[in-house]
Design brief:
mainly alpha, Rhomboid-like fold
Length: 153
């Protein structure tokens, strides 16, 4: 991922920190569009930015955002708002794995971490699961169709 893209995402997250807007059952539709850039606290923001800046692979930013938004409309079974860049990040990781087509490897390496996020209080691990596998599926289908549109996103 280009440094300019990381800077733009970081600025959006820092600005979004002050909005403190997440998605929840019955929320306005636009909450699903902006939740990735809002964070519950400074620690939450910091962890997500550290992960963002640690990504060295090429990443489909727009596709990852579309996956994060799509995943947010699936059933969550959590109380309260969900916010943060992790849905976007898990979607991006799913896209990266989907491009390889190695679903067993993705399952073995990603699922233990995703399951751990499901048992941590105040973390929406189900969003991580949805975003990862939606991203994987989108990239895998695009790869199978030899469709370059996914790489341009």
């Amino acid at each position: 991922m280009e440094v300019r893209t990381k800077i733009a995402l970081s600025v959006a997250c820092i600005a979004g920190y002050f909005l403190h807007t997440g998605f929840y059952d019955g929320c306005p539709w636009w909450n699903h569009l902006v939740y990735s850039f809002c964070h519950a606290n400074v620690f939450h923001l910091g962890v997500n930015l550290i992960v963002l800046w640690s990504i060295r692979n090429r990443m489909s930013v727009w596709l990852a955002l579309a996956v994060a938004v799509g995943a947010s409309f699936l059933p969550m079974y959590v109380d309260g708002e969900t916010m943060g860049l992790s849905g976007f990040l898990f979607g991006a990781f799913g896209i990266m794995w989907g491009r390889t087509g190695m679903w067993k490897d993705a399952f073995v390496k990603a699922m233990p971490f995703i399951v751990c996020t499901m048992i941590v209080p105040n973390v929406n691990g189900l969003l991580h699961l949805y975003a990862f596998w939606l991203g994987y599926f989108a990239a895998f289908v695009g790869r199978g169709l030899k469709c370059n549109v996914f790489h341009k996103f």
